[in-house]
User: What shape does this take?
Amino acid sequence: MISNVKTTNDLAFKIRDLNLHYGDFHALKDIDIDIPRHKVTALIGPSGCGKSTFLRTLDRMQDTVEGAKVEGEILFDGEDIYSKECDVTDLRKKVGMVFQRPNPFPKTIYENLVYGPKVHGITDKKRLDEIVERTLKEVALWDETKDRLHTSALGMSGGQQQRLCIARCLAVEPEVILMDEPTSALDPVATAKIEGLLHDLSGKYTVVIVTHNMQQAGRVSDQTAFFLLGELLEVNSTEKIFSAPDNKKTEEYISGRFG
Amino acid sequence: MTESVKKRQSGIRPVTETSLKGRKAPRKEAHEKAFFGMIWAVAGLTLAVLFLILGFILVKGVPHITWTFLSKEPEALGAEGGIFSVIVGTLAVTVLAVLISTPIGVAGAVYFSEYSKGGRIIKIIRFFTEVLAGIPSIIFGLFGFAFFVVYMQMGWSVIAGALTLTLMILPTIVRTTEEALKTVPMSYREGSLSLGATKWYTIKKVVLPCCKGGILTGVILGVGRAIGETAALMLTIGGSLNIPTSLFSSTRTIALHLYMLASEGISDDKTYACAALLIMIVLLINTAANRIGRNISK
Assistant: This one.
């Protein structure tokens, strides 16, 4: 039991025998992985390997896809998130998500940021103002936006929008942030900013990031998981994966021989 | 290559060029011009017909739209006095119909496009909604008469008329709202859900606000249909010329009044005045809808 308590503290997610089917298609096969708390875990692999699907099972966004069937165990803070007792809205408050394309709501910057807190019952104007300022500072957007908080978020650049989405996610004080290729729609400068941001966020939040970009995985993550055709082939420290991976396929993928 | 072939080849080229310049090109241009002219003519004809109708009605009607006409109650079956009670009746029936049909229509559209998984029953319901939109209005009138007026014992009344109109404009509101819902990107919904919002909260706070313009368009189209409706109301609101005092009073709308005046030959002037008034109201509604729609979509 003692070891169990320790695991709960060190691990954000503990996943065992996870299988996912879309109808006849077996999208995830017997996934076993531990996701350490307050570290950055990168998920890499060629397109269609199941890494995004896996990411979306962690906050049960996969529920919104028709015909998806999940089996196995995903423990978050020691509780099975696919059990009947699990409150999905509560789970998603603790496990936030940043998407591939920036998706701010067609509302003002301010309204975007207070949306989440309002969902969870915060209505005090002062507290909401504080949240807006805190989260914008956290994503280094405060100086750029403090004078235009009440203008439409759609008027910002792509990179700014993505940082706003991260801030929006932080506004509900999540424990985990899931990121699904958050920089793939951005230019190199904006990408560098987001990566710098990731660096600042790790240590405070548990981050799981899907990326197509090997260098990015190497730069930002502590642990890397390599997916291929729905299977998890290797999980190791990022350093090891990029220097001396255990699996031959991993090496081949990383060195660019396929993918 | 022999000399003669070269000659022939070099000889052919100038001929083609002249034919392009001299013959083919003008013919093409002439075709173009003819088509252009035809399109202009047809467009002009359409406009001419429109202006003829509008002009005819307005010229004959507008001089009779006086303050007395708008503010006095009708006398002698409408031959004398004004149409104040008829305006009140029109407002009552139309506003009530919109108030009832908008929430039902929007809720129906949200159910169809956000909740239902597109099963067979939904397809059948949707098919009948479409059919409903094409049914002649007199049939709605007949149904309203049999069901609301007689069976539900509402009598000829504002409420019976409004409910009948509700049935008529519901498909329009459902369809325009559904179209608007489809234009809201999935990513907005995902963004909201991922923050821990429930599906209903997401629809209420993100999806529906994005559809304001579309829903409004549907409502305005509905109002347009309701305001011009005669047949469906003839059998359901009776046609009293008194100001309606309750939901169960019999009343009359401008379109119905126009029909009565014309068919019974009561007053030519008043008939055209009603027609002109109706046209102006419809124009006003359409302009307002365009303005509001444009402002919202900004």
In short: The longest helix of chain B spans residues 3-61. Residues 240 and 251 of chain B are 5 Å apart (CA to CA).
